[in-house]
Amino acid sequence: MNPAAPILLRAGSGITVQCVAFDSLGVKGMCTRIQTPDITITIDPGVSPQTEEFPLPEEQRQRLWQIYQEEVLNSCVDSHAIVISHYHLDHITLLREAKIYSDKIIFAKSPDDLPQKQQDTARRFFQTIDGLPREIIWADGRRFKFKKTEIGFSPALWHGEADAEPGRVIMTEVKRGRENILFTSDVAGLTDENTTTAIHAIKPRQAIIDGYPSFLHSAPATSPGFIKSIINLCRILALPELNTLILDHHLARDYRYPALFKLVYAKAAKLKKNFGTAAEIAGGRSAVLKAMEDYGTTRWHRWFPVELDTARTTLEKLITAGRITPDWLNALEKWVI
């Protein structure tokens, strides 16, 4: 597969979806282009190189970054609108780049409810692009119509667990006719129940969701957030309306992910849903798996796959310790099995 070719999905109602720059392609990002007969938008126009923990030599990591920087720019050039879901640097381009922002409508997360660090980045971002966009709109919780295409934004949701330091993000829904596509951005793997409920209410036919950041943990199976994420992903897979679920970003930095997310892959297969990373949906392999085979592992020498019994044991221990409610054990039985 040509590393510079964005991954393309064809949805209904004349909609196409391109996964422009994703972690499963070898860079940090979730830049996505959605084109309908009425409007073309690029969501989260940013990309960063993978860190040295990613099992690729630095030269190759830098080369991929350069390739996908160009892909992000090309996506934005032909877009009518740009969506900024939050202000992390792998989701925005913090340059005064006219080709990206000039004469575009910018739908952006309001900085008002963000932690100070993110407010500072947002302020710097808007100072950098000042005078370039046609219009800047705070999009939290709002909906917009472009002929037959409706673009909706969620209220502010947590970037991971509630009250987590990274702050809040907004999700994007693109709807036309019977087709609707959901882009979660950095919700960090559906650990927050409000986020899962919001997705359930949207009932997307296609969903692009960022996976839990298992790369931050030596033993993710002992993390309540990780087990919650597995349960909530299975709950979304069970939606009758859902055809395709792309799970990428944080999870695709971790070469253990096929074993860690084994229960989710099994659920998707059981329900006959189109599921995987962006690279897998395109019929390829995630960059982190190929890199591991070619260059070896970089960390996590003591870990184990997450089986059903593993998840159940973790939940039982957390319930006994009073860290979570017994409802999560019931949810495991209902949604994962």
Compute the number of structural domains: 1
Briefly note the CATH topology name. Metallo-beta-lactamase, Chain A
Spatial sequence of strands, sheet with the most strands: 1-2-4-5-7-8-9
What would you call the structural class?
Answer: alpha/beta
The dominant shape is globular
Using the 3D structure, state the CATH architecture. Answer: 4-Layer Sandwich
Q: Considering DSSP H and I runs of 4 or more, what fraction of the residues is helical?
A: 25-40%
How far apart, in Å, are the first and last alpha carbons?
35 Å
Instruction: Indicate the radius of gyration in whole angstroms.
Output: 19 Å
Tell me the fraction of residues in β-strands, as a range. 15-25%
Largest sheet: 7 strands, mixed
Structure annotation, total helices: 11
Q: Number of DSSP strands?
A: 18
Poorly predicted regions: none
By CATH, the superfamily comes out as: Ribonuclease Z/Hydroxyacylglutathione hydrolase-like
CATH class: Alpha Beta
Order of helices and strands: EEEEEEHEHEHEEEEEEEHEHEHHEHHHH
Report on the structure:
This protein has eleven helices and 18 strands. With 337 residues, the chain is an alpha/beta fold. It has one domain: Ribonuclease Z/Hydroxyacylglutathione hydrolase-like (Metallo-beta-lactamase, Chain A, 4-Layer Sandwich), CATH 3.60.15. Strands 1-2-4-5-7-8-9 form a seven-stranded mixed β-sheet. Strand 8, helix 3 and strand 9 form a beta-alpha-beta unit. The chain starts with 6 loop residues before the first strand and ends with a helix.
Short descriptors:
337 residues; Metallo-beta-lactamase, Chain A; 18 strands; 22% strand
